[in-house]
Amino acid sequence: MNIEIERVPESRLESIDFNNLRFGDVFSDHMFEATYKDGSWQDIKIRPYGPVNMMPSANILHYGQGVFEGMKAFSYKNGKINIFRADKHYERFTRSSKRMDIPEVPKELFLNAIKTLVNLDRDWVPKSEFKSYYIRPFIVGLDEFLGLKTSDKYKFMIIAGPVGNYYREGIKPVKLTTMPEYVRAVKGGVGDAKVPGNYAASLLPAHLAKEQGYTQVMWLDAIERKYVEEVGSMNLFFVIDEKVITPPLGGTILPGVTRKSVIELCQKWEIPVEERRISVHELIEAHKQGTLSEAFGSGTAAVVSPVGLIHHDGTNITLDMENMGPIAQRLYDGITSIHHGKMDDPDGWCMLV
Fold first, then answer.
1. Is domain 174-339 classified as CATH 3.20.10.10?
2. CATH architecture assignment, domain 4-164
3. How many angstroms separate the CA atoms of 122 and 126, rounded?
4. Residue 340: is it exposed, middle or buried by C-beta count within 10 angstroms (0-12/13-18/19+)?
5. Which residues pair with 171 in a beta bridge?
6. Could you report the per-residue pLDDT of 293-306, keeping only the tens digit for each?
7. Pick from 288, 269, 277, 272: which is nearest to 252 by CA?
8. Beta partners for residue 41, in sequence order
9. pLDDT band at 50 (very low <50, low <70, confident <90, very high)
10. Which end of the chain is less crowded, N or C, counting CB atoms within 10 A of the terminal residue's CB?
């Protein structure tokens, strides 16, 4: 599929302070867009980053028929750029689209659009190994109709920009709390899809958690309110008796691409890893017994983020509040080394541009 390219008259690159990047508020010169109508993707182009025209009756504004993805590119050896695990992000994007009854974007279009956009704005990719280039593909329903139905018209877009650390405190351990009065997802819902409503519904609990001095909410299951699921922006891992344990995917947990990478690296390095249900009460007991040695989250934005404290119903599980544990550190170093070409990529995780 040919992509029409309209270049910016003048780049904004010189106005960007790459030494003081935050997460998600700087966008590069160009963006990609394609329109789905009459049963096919068409009007495929890259144009200067800017406003999108949308009618006030558009489906996405009222019923939220949309999906998005989050992925990263990194400076790589020999002047290349690495778009990390693009195929797995495409698979998740497709699963999310199917759940929301949105037409599938062909894989060739998805990957070619990202490669072309990244290559066009390649000077925006930070050179520092502690920074990256965040890529946000998304689809929104555009039907001008206030009745509840699947749209016939969609816009597929990709925007991107250089980012610093997701957490402003960098990789210092985060503090989590449970909020059993709120739930994130139930089986049969959309907890395993990357859709706007999941995140919007988490904002109030997250706001309350921050008011209480915590970084984020550690979600518990919606039925028994005791089994650990995930954090709003991360999957979770715990090291108990030298075994890495993470909650299993089962329809309520987002299948993280970094989560998958962590599990695969543990298997490669012969670190025992297990996907199973784990209750907050088991964590408390393991902490009392001294067998819980680490907790950490994984995600595209944060990569690997150590957890220093977990609060539940008046009880604190306090771990190292200053540093990553040894397994989390090894995983962080390993994944970031693959990002930048400092470690071999025998499994084809890197798509180079």
1. yes
2. 2-Layer Sandwich (3.30)
3. 9
4. middle
5. none
6. 999 999 998 899 99
7. 277
8. 36
9. very high
10. N
